[in-house]
Amino acid sequence: MGLLDRHDPARGRVIVHPTPGARSPQAFAHDVLGALGRPVNRLKAEQLVGLATAWRAVTAWMVTDQIDDLVVLRADRLTAGTWARVLELGRDTGSRVLLVCHTPQIPAHLDATLAGAGHQLLTSLPLALDSRSARPHPRLWPDAAASPDVADLPCFLHPHIRNYRSKAFDQLGPAGFARIDAVYRNGRDAASRWLSTRPRPEPASVSHQSVQLFLTWLVHDSPSRPHTLARLRGAQAGFRLHGFKLDIPPSQRILDALSGAGLDAPLVTAQAAGRIRPGVAHPVIAAGIAAVLVTGVQPLALASTPWEALSPQNDTLRLTWHPPNRTLIRASQVTARTLATTTAVFYIPAAARPLLQAARYFSHSCSCDAAGRLFATTPFSNERIAAAAANCKIPLPAQQSLQAMWQTQITCTRVEGLGTRFDASFADDQSFDPGPLSAA
Amino acid sequence: MPGAVPARPTPRDIRHVLFDALGISGTPPTRPIEFDALLKDALSERFRVLVCDEAQWLSRECFELWRHLWDDRRTDIAIVFVGGGDCYRVLRREPMLSSRVYVWQEFRRLDREQVLAVIPAYHPVWAGADPADIAYADVHAGHGNFRAWAKITAHVVTALTRLDRGRPDREILQWVFSRLGGSGS
Question: pTM of this prediction?
Answer without folding.
Answer: 0.80
